[in-house]
Write the structure tokens for this entry.
Amino acid sequence: MGTKNIIIDTDIGPDCDDVGALAMLNIYANQGLCRILGVSHCTSNPYGAGTIDVINRYYGRPDVAIGTYYGEGFLTDEVCMRYNRFITTHFPNRYQSEQPQEAVGMYRSILAAQPDGSVEVIGIGPMNNLSNLLNSGSDRFSNLDGVKADDDGRGFPMFLQSGGRQGGTDRQWQNRGYGGIQCGLRYPGGAERGRKLADAQSLPWL
């Protein structure tokens, strides 16, 4: 099967599943099954990136790239900080003294540096970061916009979304609303590809 290059996109904070998923991914990396190229945090919660860094450090990965969503007011209530505020403020992490990279920039810098079609993305939260990536324009990392890069095979060959099937219409496949934000994730290739992507529940080795 080979070693997979992975970016994981998470809303770590309100629920514990993201902690478990990130821990499992680190364990698989320790077993040589994957390489964690980056972790993207998809809410406005200021403690998400720090919590991600704490977990990665626990497994011996203090230098994994971490990006975050900088939109305002998305999943920032007390429920969404029930554990990540404590973890970020009580355990060593780089974001006690600096700010994380913006998520789209993290994605584009990683994807531009990897061979075409060699990175797989796992989404375990709202899809706003991936929507922003696919709708991004050219920048210092690549002269391709997000959709063109994916259509050319330079993006990610597989996207796995833990949310799974959301409904039966094309609009539901292509525009997943969450917490008042319309994510508007565009699946290149149309609704049929969107259905296949949304139906994917796990990697073969999960």
In short: Helices lie at 17-30, 48-58, 84-90, 103-113, 128-134, 146-151, 170-174, 191-199. The first strand starts at residue 4 and ends at 10.
